[in-house]
Structures are given as structure tokens and as C-alpha cells.
Design a protein that fits this description.
349 residues, alpha/beta, Rossmann fold, five-stranded parallel β-sheet, 13 helices, 45% helix
């Protein structure tokens, strides 16, 4: 099950390995990716512009950048009208032109890539304002790989730049599939944050900047309960358990698999979770536990509680084990997220 907990002490896993809620637990597997974005390296060579001007390409960070495209050339390259490009630049700050000695704007291959990326998002149904927010401001160029997203977010956390952390998370969601973001960005990010925190290389505040930024974005996705063709599932953290990021990712994955998901989150009285499961005629109650100190309280809560007939109780998270699950009369699940989803699907039938 996904183990994504970087809330204060324990943290998560990788390749969509996002345990129910803590450092390793309910794995979220990532395999599929969205079509390749336009953020790729450009050939290192001279190029003739539509106006006949030769632009020398040079390396700027990870990008090979051309200087010298005027607004007409940029419009011809991207298929976006000059007036529209000007509005995008003025309103959203998405382009980063340089000025000639005469004050004329000159755009680069990076600007071309940004416009092409925005066009692709518009084609997917985004509004320009939404797409611009996903892309971020011109001084935060999008990373090209999941690993670069992770490194850039860690660097922003070190600087205490919560704005850039948010922009880069939004870019990751915009540029990659949901599975890839969970398994190749968020999961390894939370693991690294936990490791750095434990080593004293990140402060509690810096760790919280990352975990709260992740939580905010997952919260938007968790809000939709889903259709319910596979049945209803109630997902809760054990009493006094606050590591919920892995459980949030599991909720999203189950919703995408066709479940009706009632996500009740951190520190949940299990009698209340069981009552909700009964009201919904739920097939599944998933409980996440990441701290050993919470096990006894979990056992006490479940031992004396009445359970609806036909309800499957499953336990995951960093502190979960087959022994713990057996003591509370439930099943233990672990592994990558896609494996967890498949196992839960089988349990419900």
C-alpha cells in the first residue's frame, strides 16, 4: 500500500509505491505517462528564422536556447496569433523575451516550447489561466523528468520558497500522468524529504512546506467521491494518526478504478468510520497506520466495535503488518499502488 508520510516523522516509497499512509505501506505504482511534452532539448546548431536571421543556440542551464525570434516569427513557429501572444505575456508572464538595444523583444526556443506546451493544454480543455498556473511563471522553467521535478522541489524547500514548490508540483501534474506523478515524483520526494529531515539537513518547517503543498494538491483530487461501479470504500487513518498522504493517493487511485470513495482522513474514531461504512453498505474499510505507538489504540478500537456484515477491513501503512492485521480481524495489504488496487478489487467480489 502507499507509504507516503512525510507529515512529521515517517515517509513514503517509489514507483507508485505509496502505502496506506506512512513510510512504505500502500504502493502506488506508476507506469503510464502522458504524451511527451514539448519540453525537450533542441539541437545544438545554427538555425534560420522565418525572417532569415541566423540564431546561434547556446546552453542555458539544461536548455539549449536561441535568442532573436521576433513576435511574428514566434507566432509562425507556434501557430498562435501575435495579439494572443502579447496578451499571454502581459497577463500571465509566461514568456521571457530579451530586449535589443533598440528596445525590441526577442524570444527564445524556451519561449517557443512554453507556447507549444500551453497550446497542448488548451487542446486538453484547460483555460489559458489554468494552463498558465500549471506552467508557472517564466522564471521557473519546467523540469523535463520526474527526477528533475524532485530535485527542483527539494531545492525550493531548502530555500523556503513555498511558491516555487507549488509551481513545480503543478508542473509535474501538468506534464505527467497521475500514476507517474504519484510514483515517480511525490513518493520519492516524500522519501527524500524524510531522509533529509532525519539527517538534520531539512528543518521541520522546510519539511512541512513540502508535505502541506503536496496535501493541498491531493486534496483537490480526493474531493470527488467517484462513481461506485465497484462498490463503496471508506478510508481512514487510525485514531491519533495524522500521516495521511499515502492514504490520500490510495483514495484517488480507487476512485479512478471505479470505487465510490468516502475519504475521512486523519485521526478518525473507528466507531464512526464503521458507522459510515454501514450507512453506505461499503464493501471495504481501509485503515492506515504509520506509527507503532498507535497500534494498541487501533486494536482496542476495533476489538470492541460492531462491524457491518460483509465489510472487509484492510490495514496498511508503515506500522502495519500481517500480525497487526490479524489482531484487529482484518487483512494486511502492502505493495505498489496498482497491486493494492487490484487486491482490493478482488476482495470486493
Amino acid at each position: 500500500m502507499p507509504t507516503a508520510s512525510t507529515d512529521s516523522s515517517v515517509r513514503p516509497s517509489s514507483r507508485s509505491t505509496i502505502p496506506f499512509a506512512a513510510a512504505r505501506g500502500w504502493g502506488v505504482s506508476t507506469s503510464t505517462r502522458c504524451p511527451a511534452s514539448t519540453w525537450s532539448l533542441w539541437a545544438a546548431r545554427c538555425r534560420e528564422s522565418p525572417s532569415g536571421t541566423t540564431h546561434l543556440l547556446f546552453r542555458a542551464g539544461a536548455f539549449l536556447v536561441t535568442r532573436g525570434l521576433n513576435i511574428a516569427a514566434l507566432a509562425q513557429r507556434t501557430g498562435v496569433a501575435p495579439d494572443t501572444l502579447r496578451k499571454w505575456e502581459q497577463r500571465y508572464g509566461i514568456l521571457q523575451p530579451e530586449r535589443t538595444p533598440g528596445g525590441q523583444r526577442r524570444y527564445s526556443e524556451r519561449d517557443v516550447a512554453r507556447v507549444e506546451w500551453l497550446r497542448a493544454r488548451l487542446g486538453e480543455g484547460y483555460r489559458i489561466g489554468e494552463a498558465a498556473l500549471l506552467l508557472g511563471k517564466a522564471d521557473v522553467p519546467a523540469a523535463r523528468t520526474p527526477g528533475e521535478h524532485v530535485d527542483a522541489i527539494l531545492a525550493a524547500a531548502t530555500e523556503g520558497d513555498v511558491g516555487e514548490i507549488g509551481v513545480r508540483l503543478d508542473q509535474a501534474f501538468a506534464l505527467h500522468s497521475l500514476d507517474a506523478v504519484f510514483g515517480d515524483v511525490i513518493d520519492p520526494l516524500l522519501q527524500k524529504v524524510g531522509t533529509l529531515w532525519q539527517a538534520g539537513q531539512l528543518s521541520v518547517v522546510q519539511e512541512h512546506l513540502v508535505s502541506e503543498s503536496v496535501r493541498a494538491r491531493l486534496g483537490h483530487l480526493v474531493g470527488d467521491s467517484g462513481g461506485g461501479i465497484r462498490g463503496a470504500a471508506v478510508l481512514a487513518c487510525a485514531p491519533n494518526e495524522r500521516h495521511e498522504l499515502g492514504l490520500m493517493m490510495l483514495a484517488i487511485a480507487l476512485r479512478n478504478d471505479g470505487w465510490y470513495v468516502a475519504y475521512v482522513g486523519a485521526d478518525t474514531p473507528l466507531e464512526d468510520a464503521l458507522a459510515l461504512a454501514d450507512r453506505l453498505s461499503a464493501a471495504l474499510l481501509g485503515i492506515s497506520i504509520s506509527l507503532q505507538a498507535r497500534i494498541e489504540e487501533l486494536e482496542t478500537s476495533l476489538r470492541d466495535a460492531a462491524r457491518p456484515a460483509g465489510l472487509e477491513v484492510v490495514v496498511g501503512g508503515a506500522a502495519a503488518s500481517p500480525e497487526v492485521a490479524a489482531r484487529v480481524g482484518g487483512r494486511y495489504l502492502a505493495g505498489e499502488l496498482h497491486e493494492t488496487v487490484e487486491q482490493l478489487r478482488a476482495l470486493a467480489h
